[in-house]
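Researcher: I need the complex structure. Ligand is WT7. Inputs:
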Amino acid sequence: MSMGIKNKSKAKKYVVKKGGVFWPSPEMKKIANMADPKIYEKAAKNPIKFWEDLAWNGLTWEKKWDKGYVEHFPYFEWFKGGQINFSVNCIDRHLDHGDRTALIWVPEPTNEKPIKVTYRELYDKVNKFANVLKSEGVKKGDVVSIYLPMVPEAAVAMLACARIGAIHSVVFSAFSADALRARIIGGEAKILITSDGYFRRGKPEPLLAKAKKAAKRTTVKRIIVVNRIGKRVWGRRYLDFNKALEKAEAYCEPEIMKSEDPLFILYTSGTTGKPKGVVHDTGGYAIQAYQTSKWNFNLNPGDVMWCTADVGWITGHTYAFYGPFLTGATSLIYEGGPDYPNSGRWWKIIQDHDVNVFYTAPTAVRMFMKVDPKWINQYDLSSIKILGTVGEPIDKESWMWYFRMIGGSRCPVIDTWWQTETGGTLINVLPGIGPFVPTVSGRSFPGLTHVIVDDKGKPMPTGRQGFLAQKSPFAPGMLHGVWKNPEKYVKTYWSNFKNMYDTSDGAYLVNGLIRITGRTDDVMKVAGHRLATAELENAIHDNKKVGDVAVVPMPHDVKGQVPIAFVVLKKGDGSEKLENELKKHVDKKIGPTARPGKIFFVKDLPKTRSGKIMRRILKALLVKEKPEGLMTLVNPESVEEIKTIIER
Ligand code: WT7
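Model: Output:
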């Protein structure tokens, strides 16, 4: 069966079926940047040397390092003594072919034309904007807050920071003013880069009002605004992004950075209520982004990659921008909603721009499984070579649908496991090597080692679920700290297992390949977005009527998980009005992505003698399973009551 393919003559077959699973076809092996199955053994012999060779051959260094890898657990440094500028690696070194397209921007309104930015144009803009930042007093090591939608200026702003050695801190544009404010304060940013708005589902969506509110009484001196929806902005505190850029000097000398200098921070949810600023370095992150783009997505100059993730997430950082730029390929970004003006939009974009690599989240796949297939089948998707998924486990049915409908049963599906903390992908099958097995992520990238262990750190036998941990030498792209919180860095990631990194994910081995089962802590994935139950609980607790609250994830057929809240009021009964009030407050505190699917008002929450809320029991009740461990509760009668309320 070959659905999703109009132009069959053009469509090459990149997979073959053997033994019930899929393998790279001779054609795939021929075009693959890496097709040697022995690469794993070769890399394992001397992983440090392996990464050193990759980094030396793949990147442009100002000065070679003295030492490839130094570890003082839980701190480690890659390419110590090496000097590099990240923007030079993304742009300057491609200028021999400066007319190649770096970025294709597809605006949402269909009457606006897509814009192509060549490497030469990107170079000009980045240099100029780097000079704008400098004239605003931004110096090496300063944090710059970026609150932008999917517009080319996001790439320009980030690369301009990298050029002058400033640290960017991008905040997802759908996050609330409160969430942005906390991140501005965290970084003590003097500059906030935002836009007047963006288009979503046919309407201009304002952004500046949220940005202004967030910046009040913070360190922000200047707000640089991209004019996207034509709002007039005035006042001494504001600067028009593109006007300022036009007036700036054409060249900005790149700041020579140490490999270990921070490139960016990105906040992410952990088990506590407060998101932590994950710090990424320069050289290590660069090679992780470069090499994974080379080998997972087979990116070469001329290839068009579309990673649908927003730049507000790590996936957007690494695969919508940096990976494609580092490899000199072309990145496509799209501003708007996936179903605007209809459910054919994404597939039309792939057809119109000959997208070769398509990378999205299982939640998007599940969403499109529900639409009329005509929205997909009318487009020619034969340009696609490799499909990828990321963000949460993908079930077999969705994998097969993606493989058949989008890949026309001819492209490998790469299920990439990684995290904000790891900077780039760590576990997946390489397209030139295979096998491609639904629901299985695969193997650690060459030169890396993951193990599946019990709570004591002892390896688990094949087929038994355990905790996924990473062994030394740690991946070059791994985080290098938690912004201004070294204790949290040590405690969260490096204290649970001896000499290993704790991923907080569960996994097991199938035929030597890793299958991920999901988070083992109180972190949810809602439509691929990472959220801590504690963050939501804090937000709901802000309401004075709320006495106690517990939030747990519930399985959802499109979003994967949705948060469900159980609230005990100090007095009185719950109402729909109060439920809406609490949901609105979550929107305000975090953003609509975090909004609970349902809030149940209950009399009591199941607790242990020590007062710990048993979220596990609430989870079981939601999926109508028999809750276990009721003996440990001080208030087992609460369970019956909650069950009745849920069933109602
Ligand atoms: C968590 C990290 C970095 C990519 C975007 C998410 C889950 C990620 C997979 C996958 C199963 C996955 C894990 C991980 N996850 N990829 N292929 N299969 N689960 O980054 O927001 O930092 O979330 O996403 O639970 O810990 P993130």
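Model: Summary of the prediction. The two ends are 44 Å apart (CA to CA).
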